[in-house]
Amino acid sequence: MLDVVLVEYVSDAQMVRSIRNRVKDNLTNDHSFIDAQKQYDWFLNLDHSTNILYLYSEGDTQAIVGFGYLRKVKDRWYATLAVEEEFRGKKYGIEIYNHLKNASEDDLWLEIYSDNNPSLRAALAADFKIVDILDKTILLVYRKE
What we know:
This protein is of the alpha+beta class and 145 residues long. 30% of the residues lie in helices and 33% in strands.
């Protein structure tokens, strides 16, 4: 079971940045390296009502496992997550997807690279449904009933 922390402080946002930079090639929107100043400026100017960050840690060890990010774009909520390499294969991705879909106010959308099989399997296990298969990505949604 993972512990969840809402990211409210710059120090936690910097932890998210560190993880994000390590997994940036698996993210679908931006592969660039983010330095500490850029993250600091981004976080301070962030609209926290439409951009919500979480850190996840192992309950036993308190080791940081990864992060989750909810962001509202136009009328849709999207999620991004990352799991540190040493914690992959332990079903933490499913647990994070489940937390994000429950934390979302509305339907939750994902865009996953089509060759990112672990993330796709985790999303499907968390009850996301494939909506469209694009050139390099798969669009999924979890519909709130």
